[in-house]
Amino acid sequence: MQSLRGSGFANCGVAGRGHAKGPTGRNISSGGLLMGNTWQDGAGRRPRRLRRALSRRSRRAALAVAVLPVAFWAGDGHAAGCFADHFAVPYAPRLEDGRGALTDRGIAIGGSYTGEVFSNLSGGLGRATTYDGLLTLSVNADLTKLGGWQGLCFHADAFQIHGQSITAEGTGGLAPASNIEADPATRFSEIWLEQSLFQDRVSIRFGQLAADTEFMLTEASGYLLNGTWGWPTIAGFDIPEGGPAYPMAAPGIRLAVRPTDSFEIKIAAFNGLVAEDCSERDAQLCNPHGVDFPIGDPPLVMGEMAFRYDIANGLPGEVKLGGWHHADTFSDLRFDAGGNPIAVSGLKGATIDGDHAFYAILQQMIWQPAGAKDEQGVTLFGRVMGGPEDRNFIELYTEAGIILTGLMPSRPDDAIAFGYERTGISDAAQAFDIDSGALIGRSYEALAELTYTLALRDSWTLQTTLQYLWRPGGGYTDPGSDKLLKDSTVIGTRSVWRF
């Protein structure tokens, strides 16, 4: 993860996956309600793949809570080599054990464990309490030290995911209440090599990659726990199979160019699917351990440019502009090839070549107390993303929030965060609902989250969250009745241990 104050790449280090992702089916199922690239059956049940598409933000979500926002403001991380600590925080543990000797020889090993309890107090699918956990292990290797290949780094990581999803059991929302929600499994995620060139002004990364480690990131929102603050709902639902984001990854290649210390351009091409032959199943179940390495599908191409700057009194800010294009064919959500509503004709939607979306991100520190560390102060963030309405379940996504870090002298590493987001259902999906006989089509889902992060020890943080969800599912009908799901209220507590 790059610093706004610093200059360079996340040089072979691994940025925490701060946002989640979503799954998706590919179209609609007979007797089902249209949900973009996924569906609900006639009884209102959701396929298991929605548990992923409900967006879970972070392959390294456990670390994201404590470190993504800090990495956003951290000092210069450039030219730090394969072990650049992009999770550096004042309370980060120093590896004093045998791993120190390995690091000297070119190998770094680390991990974290995140455990959390969530309760849906009211609304949604009903009252529920769940526990889920994520164990993350990673290894980085400096091949300059190991084999004499200058500027070449290796990275691999794996997850052990367990527990239940409060989103599937309680809220019924599009945005997952937790950014570590996923189908229980033990799986590999990223496995790649990265070559740095021209004094680290250029880097090429190739292997099995996760897009949510480098694209669409709003690093300042890393203290928030809902999955949509990372890999947003619009990406999780509109990109086939949810895209290469937690807990999935896909074969790909990424080029990053940093012509100046304040400007960077990244472009990447991924295999367009994260699992093979999985049109009617959860991609996580089709590729349960992350070792299938699918290739040959129409590609997903992503690009992003970032500009970093300082305003008055040296307060840092960043603007990002980006987008993605998927080269597969898609189906019109409302009309068949003859121009007739598919809810009436029963035919498949008209074929459309390709899909795309564009996004913009703003992150800005607006106040910092005298003598504060780089990451301490008040930061605002915002993100907007939109795509064509005829082939996408979600057409427009917006979010904004504020982060207050280290404002109490007695608690310099604590943080308070608040965020609000709105997920807008596409006009075509709404019209499909009406064509199907619904009195009111699904229109939007909105979320507000308030969190407090308590830094207890060097390697341990405790976090509480309060979330309120308006119109869960965008106006999803309660199974067994014709009434919409009631607004959902969720509380949760998360513990993160880094080792």
TrEMBL record:
Belongs to the OprB family. The lineage of its organism: Bacteria, Pseudomonadati, Pseudomonadota, Alphaproteobacteria, Hyphomicrobiales. InterPro entries: Carb-sel_porin_OprB (IPR007049), OprB_Porin (IPR052932), OprB_sf (IPR038673). GO terms for cellular component: membrane. This is Porin B. It comes from Methyloligella halotolerans. GO terms for molecular function: porin activity. GO terms for biological process: carbohydrate transport.
